[in-house]
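Protocol step 4 of 6: structure prediction from sequence.
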Amino acid sequence: MKAQRQVWGETLAELAGTDHRVVLLDGDLATSTRADIVADAHPESFIQVGIAEQNMVGMAFGLSTLGYRPWVSSFGVFLTNRALDQVRMLVSQTRAPVRLAAAYSGLLNGASGKTHQDIEDFAIMRAMPNMTVLAPADEIEAAHAIRWAAGHDGPVYIRLARDPVPAVFDQDYTFVPGQPVLLREGGNGLLVISTGAQTARTAAALDLLNADGIRLRHLHLHTLKPADADAIIAYLARTSAVCTVEEHTVIGGLGELISDLVTRDGLGLRVTRIGLDDRWAESGSNDFLLDKHGLSPRRVADRLHGLLPAA
């Protein structure tokens, strides 16, 4: 297994090797985000800005006006908070084709503590007009999403997990922006929807339930904005209840996206959100944090089992 940050560095290095317009701006975190792969392979396409995220976004905007295809690389929390004004004013409002590669996103940055954990990035970026928000599940989908983002003529925020996650897709996978991906069929009237790296853990949870004879449908959303509302509604219309699972606060992310669609179309479905409650995260190991916040496969399986009608 490869980490998404590793795949990002390798894929971007390939793109830089064939397109001189690709340029990467780094915020002094290259060895962590794996932007160093690009720096080593194509130093002419790499700009070390230092710990100056606001300036980095401004420089990327300027490069985009000159015909370059800039990528901005940093920890997600610095892009969505420290550089937020520049992202809002220079990138989102102008529809500039700047790509924000948000490494170390989500809960699993516990070694750095809650100051570096970005559990509200979906909410922030989904609220930005013109912004595309991507959350790939694994290394295969990450590579596809990165290649698509490289050619997209508009702002893109892509969430990249720090650590490797189990494979969800194989080499035959085709990435279609906005389109939900049905990972498994099932019954029992409950549709499970997940996003990002949490999709692999949700799939593991459904494997646990399947061993007990419980089969649930599982839908993956790699695009939080703009999502194909009609395609999602088509799945929602075939179920009696839905549960969203995300490595993000339950406010403003996947859960609210699905709740909005259910309300908009008057579907009358019960929507349950699994994610971080309205609280900050904290330092800790990955396994400890996932279990504490109900996102480990076992905890998700138990929660889903509790949503099923009594036999």
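Step 5 (inspection) to follow. The chain has a mean pLDDT of 95.
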